[in-house]
Specification:
With 215 residues, the protein is mostly helical. It is built from 11 helices and 2 strands, in the order αααβααααβαααα. Among the domains are: 89 residues, no CATH class; 47 residues. The protein has a two-stranded parallel sheet with strand order 1-2.
């Protein structure tokens, strides 16, 4: 019995043999130009993806609030007026200043560039158009900005029952809105499943799909 056991343990498994054969068959043959191109392309694509993921994701609200602080101070100075709760205002302004310094510390922005960024962000928040969004992205390609296309997480909560009714997990939607890659992938798969199920519905008679004629 012990000799049989030793024999089994000494013999390579079928999966190990297959891996060895596969390694020999692919590793021994010389690389073609297509193999080399594929390796270079995949390496470049992965580096670009990692660079994109490392970009700072800046929430625009704090920059808009800091811009508003400066506007309030300019207005007070112009009218020679004094702000009520000036001490609280100063503390909040200082807190925002420190937070902005923290999130932009690794960007190496000069004060002029930070001011320009705040100006563009405020313009986008006042008029969140595609044109204003592109202006921020093109002039500041080193960062990503928060885009509240859904009006905040509260709107998602309001639509939670509608998503569930359609067979979509609201948590996947929340993850996708937060740019979580696994959630984006899972949500896309779920949508494809639902589209496939819709295409299987009868095109006429009882149970006809409402969108049967839609390509």
């Amino acid at each position: 019995m012990s000799r049989l056991k030793n024999k089994r343990t000494s013999e390579p498994s079928a999966s190990t043999s297959r891996k060895a054969k596969r390694k020999v068959s692919t590793g021994d043959r010389p690389k073609t130009w297509l193999d080399q191109f594929s390796e270079i392309w995949h390496e470049k694509a992965e580096q670009e993806r990692l660079t994109w993921l490392r970009k700072p994701h800046l929430h625009t609200a704090i920059f808009a609030d800091a811009w508003q602080d400066d506007e309030i101070e300019k207005l007070l100075a112009a009218n020679n007026d004094i702000l009520q709760n000036a001490e609280l205002f100063a503390r909040e302004k200082e807190k925002r200043r420190h937070e902005i310094e923290r999130v932009t510390a690794n960007l190496g922005w000069l004060p002029e560039r930070l001011k320009l960024f705040m100006e563009k962000v405020v313009a986008y928040r006042k008029a969140p158009s595609i044109e204003n969004y592109l202006r921020v992205r093109r002039e500041f390609p080193e960062v990503e900005i928060q885009v509240a296309r859904f009006g905040g997480i509260e709107a998602l909560f309001k639509l939670e029952k509608d998503f569930e009714k359609q067979g979509i997990d609201p948590h996947l939607v929340a993850g996708a809105l937060d740019a979580d890659e696994p959630s984006v992938d899972a949500l896309c798969l779920r949508l494809l499943e639902l589209l496939t199920a819709r295409d299987r519905l009868p095109k006429s008679g009882p149970g006809t799909s409402i969108n049967a004629g839609v390509p």
